[in-house]
Design goal:
alpha/beta; 7-stranded mixed β-sheet; 42% helix; binds S-adenosylmethionine
């Protein structure tokens, strides 16, 4: 079985190489952040794939997106990608339980560009709590895109809360939706079961139009009706 590994990892499929080479476009700031993360962080495999960022940026352009939920910050690469794609008055709320990777690597790189940095609001704490707080503050229906990329056991919860917070026509991107192919295996650990459950929940959900694509580590795309 072939699944597509992240484009910054080595793999042996020349067709995938061809596709990613002719898809990935990164700003110098993104290149620096990717390089520093891959060179310096011991959990570098958590870094989002740049082809996923291009897809998300394209959706943001398509739907004229301004307000983004970035669920799982790590070194800030996905937050930076969305900030680069939204207008001056847009906002990315990026959430994580741990800011050590951001403080070690991403924050100083992102802050070099004042035109982009002010668009990102990094929130420390459980993403469930951050999303619930946004709902309690009356922000339901105010967001254009949600990128789900934090702890896998909460994927369905993140999907549900994102559906609540998105406006009609908004898009949810669920990263790692194939989990290196583990979703099709008979034996599944807790994370794999949770991703599989979320994929099936999205497929059955009449509130959205969706498709699951074999790009990167799998990307489930759902447009809120
Ligand atoms: C795969 S990384 C995010 C990668 C990032 N989106 C990117 O594109 O480079 C997942 C992140 O989720 C965070 N995380 C794990 N559990 C969490 C939780 N319950 N709430 C918020 N963040 C969580 C981890 O600390 C980690 O930084």
């Amino acid at each position: 079985m072939t699944t597509v590994s992240k484009s910054y990892e080595s793999h042996e499929d020349p067709v995938i190489d061809y596709c990613t080479k002719l898809t990935i476009k990164m700003s110098p700031l993104q290149e620096e952040l990717q390089k520093e993360t891959l060179e310096k962080h011991e959990r570098r495999g958590m870094l989002g794939g740049p082809e996923i960022f291009v897809i998300g940026q394209s959706f943001l352009n398509l739907i004229h997106g301004k307000n983004v939920l970035d669920i799982g910050t790590f070194t800030g690469a996905s937050a930076l990608a969305w900030a680069l794609a939204i207008p001056e008055d847009g906002k990315v709320i990026s959430m994580d339980v741990d800011h050590s990777a951001l403080d070690q690597i991403g924050r100083s790189i992102i802050e070099k560009c004042s035109k982009t940095a002010h668009k990102i609001d990094f929130r420390l704490g459980s993403a469930i709590e951050t999303l619930d707080k946004l709902i309690a503050e009356g922000k339901s229906g105010k967001f254009d895109l949600a990128f789900i990329d934090a702890d896998k056991v909460n994927y369905t919860n993140y999907y549900e809360k994102s559906m609540e917070l998105l406006r009609s026509g908004g898009v949810i991107l669920v990263d790692n939706a194939l989990w290196d192919g583990a979703v099709v295996k008979t034996e599944k650990d807790e994370a794999t079961k949770a991703i599989d459950e979320c994929n099936r929940r999205i497929f059955a959900d009449e509130r959205s139009n969706s498709f699951l694509i074999n790009v990167g580590d799998g990307l489930h795309v759902a447009f809120k009706k």
